[in-house]
Amino acid sequence: MIEFDKLSGFFSSFYTFKPRERFIYLDFHLHTTVSEGITISPSLLSFLSDKPHLISITDHNDIRGAAAACEIGMSNIPGIELVCKDGFELLVYFKTMQELEAFYTQEVERNTHCYLVARTNKDIGYYLDLLSERDCYLSIPHINGLAEKNFVKSVPYVKNVINRVDAIETYNHALPKNRNVNAQIIRRSYQLEATFGSSALINRDLLSFCRYLDQEEKRHHRLLDSFYRSPLEYGLAQPWTGQ
Question: Which domain of life does the protein's organism represent (predicted)?
Answer without folding.
Answer: Bacteria
